[in-house]
Design goal:
3 domains; Cathepsin B, Chain A; 487 residues; 9-stranded antiparallel sheet; alpha+beta
Length: 487
């Protein structure tokens, strides 16, 4: 009985489980059928729709594909909000990138690219010199002043490696020439000063004689470069030079500024005749108009010599006018002493008198004569000037002749040796001052020379006289190397 009571509930439980399982299986079968039917209908509808649409181009197909992908993405977004946010951000970035790429490939921009200005090189604020760097995109050696590059600098400047020619702020390594700085004009080769340069070089102003790389403005003579030998005056080649000019090797015939080594014989330039052999000059003679001081002015040799030289240069003058142009003063006797003026300020005595006359003529020295000659030149509005060249050496006297310039010189009559002196006192604020000079002094015009002799135009008789070089030089020194030149 007890077994039957226990079996009834158990059977009832098994029956309930069987009913539940049957219901579950029936429901599952129904869902499967519904899904299959839906899929079949959708496929048939899509096929029918596709058969009714027109063919799409490749672009349209791509667009459709893109749209479907976007739709799928949208569907997925709704499924996962976190993924949706990230996907949306990435999509936005992709679209932005695509848009920029499209713009750059379809239409070029008209805007200029913006670039930062190059930074100026940094130097110590106290640095001044030439430094290697890049400035505004240009590499080179640049002029720097107080730490700043000077792009407008042009000149010759120094750094630790030498002196350099700078143009528009940068060393010009291609430059050859002669350029200036505050210390002078310098020979430049490949942009650098050549301190060994010892020749003649060109710049925009002419050709220049250099010594140790620097233009030598003190040089006057004949110098050489690779093109020949040239007449140089105060450092610059004189292309107008025509005549005879001297250097350490001799005197040379120059035409158009250049030594003519092909010339031999007598060459006449203006009023000067030269004796030339293969370009080398051995003598020169100037044709000067002779003036005779006799008989009216027996001691007027200064005025007569001045008249000859002024006539040579084209001035309208005669002896009597010249005598009156020179200031003079006679000697006077005070307490048994003869007093007179300084011979460098006035003609002492009377040029119309001899040494033995009551008021004898003693003469005048170079400063008096040059001043009187300048008065004549000035009154005739001349372009020349008479120069007191006292102290000029004998060799330099010959250079004046080579240039066609006759020279008034002080020596003695016929180069005789004086045996006595002329003397007097000069009154000064401190008392009488004694003065004397050789008696027999005579003034002539030096007009020529050769290898052994010199030629004097002597106003005492209006003759050209020949004397040895040594004899003349001896008496010339005795009278203090006094000379007057017009140029």
């Amino acid at each position: 009985m007890l077994r039957n009571k226990l079996a009834r509930p158990f059977l009832a439980l098994l029956l309930a489980l069987a009913i539940a399982c049957g219901a579950f299986l029936a429901s599952f079968a129904e869902d499967e059928e519904t899904a299959t039917t839906s899929t079949t209908v959708t496929s048939e509808e899509k096929s029918e729709k596709d058969s009714k649409e027109e063919p799409k181009s490749e672009d349209e197909e791509k667009s459709s594909s893109t749209t479907k992908k976007d739709s799928d993405k949208t569907t997925r977004k709704s499924e996962d909000p976190d993924k949706d946010d990230k996907s949306t951000t990435k999509q936005s970035e992709d679209e932005s990138t695509t848009s920029k790429e499209d713009e750059s490939t379809t239409e070029p921009t008209t805007e200029e690219p913006t670039t930062e200005a190059p930074k100026e090189p940094d130097f110590a604020p106290d640095y001044t010199g030439i430094a290697q760097t890049t400035y505004e995109g240009v590499e080179g050696w640049w002029r720097v002043v107080n730490g700043k590059i000077q792009p407008k600098a042009t000149g010759v400047y120094q750094n630790e490696y030498g002196w350099w020619y700078v143009k528009n702020g940068r060393v010009d390594f291609d430059f050859y020439g002669v350029e200036q700085n505050q210390y002078g004009w310098w020979r430049i080769e490949t942009g650098k000063v050549n301190f060994k340069a010892q020749s003649i070089y060109q710049n925009r102003y002419g050709w220049w004689k250099t010594k140790d790389g620097k233009v030598d403005f003190s040089y006057t003579g004949v110098a050489q470069n690779q093109y020949g030998w040239w007449r140089v005056k105060t450092g610059k080649v004189d292309f107008n030079a025509h005549g005879a000019f001297r250097n350490q090797y001799g005197t040379w015939y120059v035409k158009n500024g250049k030594v003519d080594f092909g010339k031999t014989g007598t060459v006449v330039v203006g009023k000067t005749s030269y004796t030339v052999r293969e370009g080398k000059v051995s003598g020169a003679t100037i044709k000067v108009p002779l003036v005779n001081q006799l008989p009216n002015y027996p001691t007027g040799c200064e005025a007569a010599s001045a008249t000859m030289v002024l006539k040579y240069w084209g001035y309208d003058i005669n002896l009597s006018k010249m005598v009156n142009t020179i200031p003079r003063e006679n000697l006077r006797t005070i307490d048994g002493r003869k007093y007179g003026p300084r011979i460098t300020e006035k003609f002492v005595g009377d040029p119309r008198s001899t040494y033995t006359s009551k008021n004898p003529g003693y003469g005048a020295f170079a400063p008096v004569v040059s001043k009187a000659m300048n008065n004549v030149i000035s009154n005739q509005h001349g372009k020349h000037k008479a120069y007191n060249k006292t102290g000029t050496s004998f060799t330099d006297l010959l250079d004046y002749l080579n240039e066609g310039k006759p020279v008034i010189v002080w020596s003695t009559y016929n180069l005789k040796t004086p045996s006595t002196v002329n003397a007097w006192y000069i009154a000064t604020s401190t008392g009488p001052e004694y003065f004397s000079y050789p008696r027999g002094t005579h003034v002539c015009v030096l007009v020529g020379y050769d290898g052994k002799n010199i030629y004097l135009a002597d106003p005492y008789g209006a003759k050209t006289k020949t004397f040895s070089r040594s004899a003349f030089n001896d008496k010339y020194k005795l009278l203090g190397r006094q000379a007057v030149v017009v140029q």
